[in-house]
Recover the amino acids of this structure.
């Protein structure tokens, strides 16, 4: 069973290749998806990232939560229904 992370605060225009570059150093990724904002103002996006291994997801969450990327603060949380569900504050 994979562990899914939700990452918010990504820069506008971020794509799947950018997301893969950001998240792959922490472990093997099962799936990922960039979620673009709808509407006239697009000042950022979010993403879902599924790691095969819980420890890899935990490491990614600990390292990326609160990190600054292109002047934006990232927030990372575990998605309910994955192996763990919690939010890092």
């Amino acid at each position: 069973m994979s562990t899914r992370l939700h990452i918010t605060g990504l820069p506008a225009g971020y794509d799947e290749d950018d997301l893969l570059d950001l998240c792959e150093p922490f472990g093997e990724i099962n799936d990922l998806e960039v979620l673009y904002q709808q509407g006239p103002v697009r000042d950022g996006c979010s993403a879902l990232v599924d790691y095969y291994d819980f420890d890899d997801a935990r490491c990614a969450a600990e390292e990326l939560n609160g990190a600054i990327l292109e002047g934006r603060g990232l927030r990372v949380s575990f998605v309910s229904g994955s192996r763990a569900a919690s939010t890092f504050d």
Q: What stands out?
A: The two ends are 25 Å apart (CA to CA). Confidence is low (pLDDT under 50) at residues 83-89. Helices lie at 16-23, 54-64.
